[in-house]
Amino acid sequence: MYRYVGLFLLTWLLSFGLLGQTWAANPKAATTTKKKRGFKFPPIKVPYFQYKPGTKFQKKTFSFKTIVGQKPFVLFYFLPNAKPTITELKAYATASTIFGKKMQFFAVTKGTTADDIKKAYDKIKELKIQLPVLLDEKGLIAYVMLTRRVPAYAMVTKSGRFTLARAGSLTEKINASTTLLGLISRVSRGEETPFTVAPGYSPNPYNLVGQKAQTFKAVNVLSPDKLDLQKFVKQDKRPVLLAFWSVTCPHCQKTMPILEKYAQVNKKRMRMLTMAVIHKEVYKAKLKAYLKEHKLTFKVYNDPKGKVFNAYKIMTVPTLFLLDSKGIIRNALLGGRNAGKILDRLLPGLNHPSKAPAPRKAPAPRKAPAPRKVPAPRKAPVPRKAPVPRKAPAPRPSPRR
User: Fold this and answer.
1) pTM: predicted TM-score of the whole model, two decimal places
2) CATH code of the region 206-350
3) Domain 45-201 fold
4) Cα separation, 273 vs 384, whole angstroms
5) Which of 166, 185, 329, 339 is most buried by a 10 A CB count?
6) What confidence tens digit (pLDDT) does each residue in 162-203 have?
7) One fold for both 45-201 and 206-350?
């Protein structure tokens, strides 16, 4: 009997193991999470110090292995001699008092020399900030944070995956509807948010969402056609997709044919305009060849001095803006990724047909129904005759005794 039980258990374990290998070999299940949440934060070890009143400077080592996958955390890179980073550091320290019970806050600074470390410690002591300060001796932390400038934020969710990089301010909009502070609040509650690379500039293109688009005039690069944005928006009630791009940008070269196809399929719901900086004849020739090669028909208007690009806070290309029928910027998209899906979600709420629909004809009045015939009155029933009273029965004789 024990032999049969043992064989059953062995067969079950082998089956479970094979099933486990088959599931692990499925790349779809393994990579979907990484794409949505970013890469796993490495369990690196770094030196750090933490100021506490009444204590002396002490350098220790911190291992991220103790926190990755256990608790969400934020990293903020500052330099003691850079005033903008110190202003942001104060705000960051205040935020840590609000969310510090649910997530860990780290300050990060350059620690290449003893002088760097001393300046950082003196500034932290002066501000009486008691956050742990990680010392980036070899630039490893900056590399992991995906940043080359300060101030810079990075954030990791409770699962240990990157959710944000390159943000420059707590009030910075990292997308059209969310600020960094709002994202910190969500991650502190354990939410696993998609990975986002913030613009890192304040103000940035997302700050224009909800404002009226700044009007401008421009000339088509390849024809004498002129554009007045204000008149263009008013002449048609369809929303406008305004795309800023560059003919020398590889990502733009891949994105623009996709936008062209989407605009053609959805031409009843929207219109598309594009802006580029063509300040030399060589770029004009490249643009002409590119449009011809990909058989693109959208119009390209020129901003030779970059004034329109500056007005719209363009820091990277392509950058897309969606304008409603009143010229209000309703959304912005940096990079053009998933533009079709985003437009599919937004256009129904902005779609105003160029011509008002014809009023429906009033339905023809129905004929009045023919009056029903009044039924003839029934004849009164004939009264019945009263029944003849029965005679009383004769009394029976009493029984004999």
Assistant:
1) 0.62
2) 3.40.30.10
3) Glutaredoxin (3.40.30)
4) 99
5) 329
6) 999 999 999 998 888 889 999 999 999 999 999 988 887 666
7) yes
